[in-house]
Fold this sequence. Notes:
Mean pLDDT: 76
Number of strands: 2
Oligomer: single chain
Helix content: 55-70%
Amino acid sequence: MSAVDEYGKVIDDIYDFAEAQGFASDTIIQEGGAGQVEINFLHGNAVGLTDQVFVFNRDAVRGEAYEKARALPRDLLAALDLFEDCPEVSSVLGPDFCAVYKAIKHDEIETFLQMISPWERDHLLLNV
């Protein structure tokens, strides 16, 4: 039930898009991963339903998120900096989630930086 509370708006949008496209969805359920949702459509003509799903995917994407080029960070620290400096993400995910996520990622980064990578072991450690 927590998924319904957490992703209720997204699930409502999915139902609205499906209805607007004129095809029936059977169920929408949360999968094992966070934010992972499975959509089951009613069975029928396979070719026709496939066409509807592709149209649904194309039409469901709205807004400007896919219209702007984004420079992707090449490391975890840069990505976390971008995450921390984005109030829009915090407003969507909530400040509590963002605070916990940032703390976990900072800990993961610190743990990662303390490890010797296979490349370092092969090229530096044994050759110095």
